[in-house]
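Data deposition worksheet. Section B asks for the primary sequence of the deposited chain exactly as it was used as input, without tags or linkers unless they were present during the calculation. Section C holds the resulting structure in C-alpha cell form. Section D is free text for depositor observations; keep each observation to a single sentence. Incomplete worksheets are returned to the depositor.
Section A, Depositor: J.P.
Section B:
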Amino acid sequence: MISICSQSRRAKAATLVAVVVLLVGYGFVFAREPQRSDWYCCFVRAALRMQHGQPIHIVDKTPYAYPPLMAMLTIPLAQLPTGVGIVAWYVVSLVTLAIALWYAWRLIGGPTHGRLRGRWAAVAALGLLCSLRFIIGPLETRQFDTVIAALLMAGCWRLAGGHRSSGGVLLGLAAAMKCTPLLLVPYLAWRRWYGAAVLVTLTAVAANLLPEFCFPQQSGGWYAADWKRHFLDVSHRVPPGTWFSGLAQNQSLAGMFQRLFRYGLPLSTQAISGGEFPAESVPLLRACVYAASALLLASTLYFGRRGRVGCDFRGRNDDDPAAAMRHFAAEISAVFALMLLVSPMTSRAHYLILILPSLLICHAAIIDRDPFFRRLLPVLLVCGPLVTKGLVGKTLGDLALAWSLPTWYAIVCLAGMWRLLARRCAARMPSISPQAFLAPLAAANGRKRFCRSL
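Section C:
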C-alpha cells in the first residue's frame, strides 16, 4: 500500500514537472519577437496612444478594432520594457486560461484532480484533445481571448451558485471587451434573471465609458464613437464576412458563406486567392447569412423551451442535481456557440469557449454512453485538430480553414447541445436549482465555508 502511494506521488510530481517545463519552454516561443506580435502592434500601441490622449481606432496594418476597455487595461503593462511586458502578459494569459478551464470543468460536474480517474479521466483527455487547437490559439495571437473566456466561465459559475450580481458583472466585463457576449442578455431575460441581464448591459457600457474620463482625447472626441464610425459602420457597408483580416481567418457563418460564394470547396491553395467579391451577389449572400443565423437562433430557442417543459428550476426537487447543473451548462454552451456563429467576425482564438460544450459532449458519449454523442466525437476530432498547421502542414491547414472546419465544429457543438436539452425533456428528469447541486459538491470537497455562503 505504501509503495502504491509513493508511486502515485512520484507520478503526480513527474506530471507537474513536465507541465512546468512545457509552459516555460512555450514561454520562449510566446515572447519571441514581441514588437512584431499582435500584443504589441495592436494593444500596446493603442494603449500608448490612449495614454497620450490620441485616437486609438486607426485603420492600419494591425488595427485596434475593439471597444476601448482593453486598450485602457493594457496601459500598465505598456509602461514596462517590451520584453518584460510580453512575459507579464504570458503569465496573465496562463492564469486566465487555467481559470477558464477549471470553471468549465466544474460546470459539467467534473471531480477534482485527486478523484480524476476512470471514465472522468477519459472525458477530460478527449475534451482537451478535441479543443486543443482552440486552447492554444489565444496563446498564439497573444490577445485577450483567455481573459474573456475566464470572465465568461467564472460569471456562469457565479450565476449557477445563485450569485446573480457578481455573475452579471463578470459577464458584463466580458461583453465590454468584445460585444458578442451581449447575446447572454436575452438568454438571462429568458431565464427571468432580469437583474443579471441589466447588470451585464450596464457593466459593458460603464466599463467602456471609463477611458473617456480617465484618458480623454485631446481633440475632445470619444473612443466609443470612433470605434463605431471606423469599424462597426464599415461592417454594414461591406459583404458579410469581410473584416480587417484575411477571409480564411473569419470562422463565423458570414465568413463561411462568403467563402462558399467565392470559391466553393477548394482542392488547392491556389483556388482560395480571389479578388473582390462581386457586388451583385452581396444581397443573396446577406440573405443566406441572416436566414442561417435566424434558423440557428430559432432552433436553439425551440429546444431550450422543450427542455424546460415540466421542469422546476426553483429547487423543489434534489433527485438529480448533477443533471440539473449540466442542463444549465448545456444552455450556456448553446449561447456560446451562437456567439461565435452569428458574429460578423470570429477567429480560431475566440473558439476557446467551446471547451465547455466539448466536455459536455465527451461526458454524454463516455459516461452516459449515448450513441448520438459517440457519433459526434469523431467529427470533433477531425474538425478541431485538422486546423493545426504544425500537425497537418500549412497546405492542408489552409484548406481546412477554407473548408470552414472550425465553423462546423461550432455547429456540431450546437447540435449536441440541442440533443442534450431535448433528451432532458424526453427523460423528464427532475430539475433543481444549481445551488442544490453546488452545496453537497462543496461539502464533499471539504469546503464547508463555501457551502454556508450558498
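Section D:
Confidence is low (pLDDT under 50) at residues 309-318, 427-437, 439-454.
DSSP finds 20 helices and no strands in the chain.
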